[in-house]
């Protein structure tokens, strides 16, 4: 298993100019468990039937059935063998690869990353999952703590959330000012172009899920004693803030999708399909020794989209 730099405060906002508990209205961003108009609450005893029934196809997901486990496991093994070859090639060529994972709470980032690194050498692969910034980090250049985690020659760095917290959770919960968000969206393409010019191969993946699927997964986490640690106070407001997140993510994809660092959107309602297509996409865009094109194939166009295509289809769904 690849090494992880830090254990994060899961999905917690990274405050910049305000303390974590501050919200735009001046009220606490603490836990709220009351039911919304759909009858949903993260900690309710049962998940409403209409939410469960709508979950898989929510958010314009194109498949009505999940991928079967046997087919998934067979294909996953084939792709993971290719990942081992990819990493060996990166090491031999002394290349540097950065893979960024973004998406809503419970979109499946952690599960996809776990399958990605399952058989990779931890000496050459590390997962970056940063906790809230320290007081010292708050006084630094915003990108500074992320730059410190960039890979050296022969390494792959995987960011489980990244500098895009600034235009995501921070913007939605008021942990940064609108001007700081605008400045971030203007500066990020230059920052990422600088990384690309220095030779870093940057792959950015945005996992998208439907609203009912997010409800189902958050509810399942609450009722699983082994997964409840993944929930933070902000997760209890994820559904309430659904449209705010939609606007934030659409703005992010539009402003920071560039040739040097393009976004790839993966429809992730079906975790198995999403994990396979994430791995396939990474193998598809990287040139490495020992690549078996027949095994890698091409990403499923119904699941994997460019940011431009996704935004043309309407982008993140709204209620």
What proportion of the residues is helical, as a percent range? 25-40%
The fold-level CATH name of the domain at 47-110 and 163-312 is: Rossmann fold
Q: Using the coordinates above, name the CATH class of the domain at 47-110 and 163-312.
A: Alpha Beta
Computed over alpha carbons, the radius of gyration is: 19 Å
**Which class do the helix and strand fractions yield?**
alpha/beta
The spatial strand order of the largest sheet comes to 1-3-4-2-5-6-7
- Overall spatial form: globular
Describe the structure in your own words.
It contains twelve helices and seven strands. With about 325 residues, it is of the alpha/beta class. It has a domain at about 45-110 and about 165-310: P-loop containing nucleotide triphosphate hydrolases (Rossmann fold), CATH 3.40.50.300. A seven-stranded mixed β-sheet has the order 1-3-4-2-5-6-7, with helices on both faces. The longest helix has 25 residues, at about 70-95. The chain is globular. The relative contact order is 0.20. Mean pLDDT is about 90; it is low at about 5-30.
Key features of this structure:
single chain, 319 residues, alpha/beta, Rossmann fold, seven-stranded mixed sheet, 7 strands, 39% helix, 12% strand
Topology diagram in text:
Blueprint: E1 3-4, H1 49-54, H2 69-93, E2 96-103, H3 109-117, E3 125-128, H4 135-138, H5 144-147, E4 155-160, H6 169-173, H7 178-197, E5 200-208, H8 211-222, H9 242-256, E6 263-267, H10 271-285, H11 293-296, E7 304-306, H12 307-312
Parallel strand pairs: 1-3, 2-4, 2-5, 3-4, 5-6
Antiparallel strand pairs: 6-7
Helix pairs in contact: 2-10, 3-10, 7-9
């Amino acid at each position: 298993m690849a090494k992880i730099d830090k254990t994060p405060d899961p999905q917690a906002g990274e405050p910049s100019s305000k303390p974590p508990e501050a919200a735009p209205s001046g009220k606490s961003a603490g836990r709220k468990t009351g039911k919304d108009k759909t009858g949903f609450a993260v900690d309710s005893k049962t998940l409403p039937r209409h939410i469960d029934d709508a979950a898989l196809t929510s958010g314009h997901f194109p498949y009505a059935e999940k991928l079967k486990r046997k087919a998934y496991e067979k294909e996953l093994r084939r792709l993971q063998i290719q990942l081992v070859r990819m990493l060996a090639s990166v090491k031999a060529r002394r290349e540097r690869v950065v893979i960024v994972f973004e998406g809503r709470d419970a979109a499946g980032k952690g599960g996809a990353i776990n399958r990605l690194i399952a058989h990779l050498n931890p000496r050459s692969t590390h997962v970056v999952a940063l906790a809230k910034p320290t007081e010292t980090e708050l006084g630094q250049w915003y990108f500074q703590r992320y730059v410190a985690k960039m890979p050296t020659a022969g390494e792959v760095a995987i960011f489980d959330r990244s500098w895009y917290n600034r235009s995501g959770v921070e913007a939605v919960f008021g942990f940064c000012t609108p001007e700081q968000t605008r400045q971030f969206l203007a500066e990020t393409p230059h920052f990422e172009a600088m990384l690309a010019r220095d030779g870093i191969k940057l792959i950015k993946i945005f996992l998208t899920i439907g609203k009912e699927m997010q409800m189902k997964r958050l509810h399942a986490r609450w009722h699983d004693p082994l997964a409840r640690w993944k929930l933070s106070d902000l997760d209890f407001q994820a559904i309430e803030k659904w449209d705010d997140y939609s606007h934030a993510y659409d703005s992010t994809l539009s402003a920071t999708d560039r040739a040097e660092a393009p976004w790839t959107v993966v429809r992730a309602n079906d975790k198995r399909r999403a994990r396979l297509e994430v791995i396939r996409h990474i193998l598809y865009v990287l040139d490495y020794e020992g690549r078996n094109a027949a095994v890698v194939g091409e990403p499923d166009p119904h699941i994997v989209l460019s940011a431009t295509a996704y935004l043309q289809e309407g982008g993140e769904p709204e209620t």
